[in-house]
Design goal:
The complex is a heterodimer. Helices cover about 70% and strands about 0% of the residues of chain A. Chain B is mostly helical. Helix content of chain B is about 75%, strand content about 0%. Chain B is built from nine helices and no strands. In chain B, helix 2 runs parallel beside helix 8. The longest helix of chain B has 26 residues. Classes of the chains: A mainly alpha, B mainly alpha. Chains A and B meet through helix 2, helix 3, helix 4, helix 6 and helix 7 of A and helix 1 of B.
Chain lengths: ~180, ~210
């Protein structure tokens, strides 16, 4: 997994220059690592709940991506956020754990398990959002709507749609943090 | 929402967030400078300022808070990166505290113990506490608002160091007015006011800086 760090830095640098495919590839590479960590640390809880935590970490990494500086290694940065959020998420669900950061290097990545319960935390939190934020997030997540189309659909310029989408994600993250 | 759907959603959000460092400095020191200048216009600047800043005993009224500003703000900025380990700046905070204690003790031994309380109490205790803490709070509030965009994994600690830095900056300005030069007075009360802003920062940080 040593090479991963460099791959990730490459992808994130490309993402910073507007390459959304590289960014999606970074998040897609991060997700199985997060799953492995959460499973190793909280194997007793059910798969749907573990996937909720993975999503919570992904959302936070996304909203804080500007705190990675391009001249710094990616893994210490992203693992610090992940460790903090996983501990925090489990504590809110009534489990106190600590995660030594060295563990991240040893854990095997895990694929998502088939999940019979489609309704998860993210959807529950979506329901608590204001109407416009919810519609925007649903249109992009379920409808695959692009930013340009999002603007015309909600009567916004592309720039305003970009801001609205970003704000909606921040509200979602705040709800997850304070919710449950 | 499936995780793949979430990832596609996140990749669509291409809004760039600016680096926080310059904004934190502006949001912290801007309000302190404005509030501090207003207060100095009301209270006035001490008339013997030029001899005070060159006096080897009095100059600590600016040197110690100044060190605290540098250490507090650089710690707050450093901690806003999740992976950061801030070793060295802690030493500056400890050195400031230790040096303050040395100043108090070295002054106390020159006075008979019966005079200690009077030396500590001074003449302007309430104005001093109220001025430094309220000016410091303006910077704390401004700085916290921007620090929320950072990613500290120690929210209470981040708030504490930002508060110490803001309180230190407020003390720096207030010292331009205050002519009580006994270390037993200024170390005790400047220190208390700065610490109060720090503690408020820690409590507030715990609430508003969580990522």
């Amino acid at each position: 997994m040593t090479e991963n760090g460099d791959d990730w830095a490459y992808l994130l640098r490309a993402a910073n220059r507007g390459d959304t495919a590289a960014y999606a590839a970074f998040l897609a590479a991060l997700a199985p690592v997060l799953r492995g960590i959460v499973r190793a640390r909280a194997g007793g809880i059910d798969a749907a709940l573990r996937e909720d935590i993975v999503q919570e970490v992904l959302l936070t990494v996304h909203l804080k991506r500007h705190t990675w500086a391009e001249d710094r290694p990616v893994r210490p940065w992203v693992y610090s956020i992940a460790r903090y959020k996983i501990v925090d998420a489990l504590r809110r669900r009534g489990r106190d754990i600590t995660i030594p950061v060295e563990d991240f290097a040893d854990v095997l990545p895990a694929e998502a398990e088939p999940d019979p319960f489609a309704i998860r935390d993210t959807d529950r939190m979506l329901d608590k959002l204001d109407d416009r934020s919810r519609s925007i997030l649903r249109a992009v997540a379920y409808g695959g709507t692009k930013l340009a189309d999002l603007g015309s659909r909600f009567g916004l310029s592309e720039g305003a749609a970009r801001v609205a989408l970003h704000r909606a994600l921040r509200k979602l993250s705040a709800l997850r943090r304070g919710g449950q | 929402m499936k995780t793949e759907e979430l990832i596609a959603l996140l990749a669509t959000d291409t809004r760039r967030v600016r680096p926080i460092c310059p904004d934190v400095l502006l949001a912290t020191f801007g309000p302190i400078l404005v509030a501090g200048s207003l207060l100095l216009m009301v209270l006035g600047i001490r008339s013997d300022l030029d001899s005070a800043v060159t006096s080897p005993l009095v100059v600590w009224k600016w040197l110690l808070p100044g060190l605290l500003v540098a250490a507090g703000i650089s710690l707050a900025l450093g901690l806003s990166r999740p992976e950061s380990r801030q070793g060295k700046a802690w030493w500056v905070v400890l050195v400031v505290a230790a040096f303050g204690a040395v100043l108090v003790v070295s002054r106390a031994v020159t006075l008979p113990p019966t005079n200690w309380m009077a030396a500590i109490r001074g003449q302007t205790l309430l104005v001093c506490l109220a001025s430094i803490s309220s000016i410091g709070l303006t910077g704390l509030v401004g700085g916290l608002a921007i620090l929320r965009r950072g990613a500290t994994t120690r929210p209470g600690l981040s708030g504490l160091v930002l508060g110490l830095g803001s309180g230190g900056a407020a003390a720096l300005l207030y010292a331009l007015h205050c002519n009580e030069d006994d270390p037993m007075f200024f170390v005790t009360w400047y220190g208390s006011a700065i610490l109060a802003v720090g503690v408020i920062g820690a409590i507030a940080g715990q609430r508003v800086l969580r990522i």
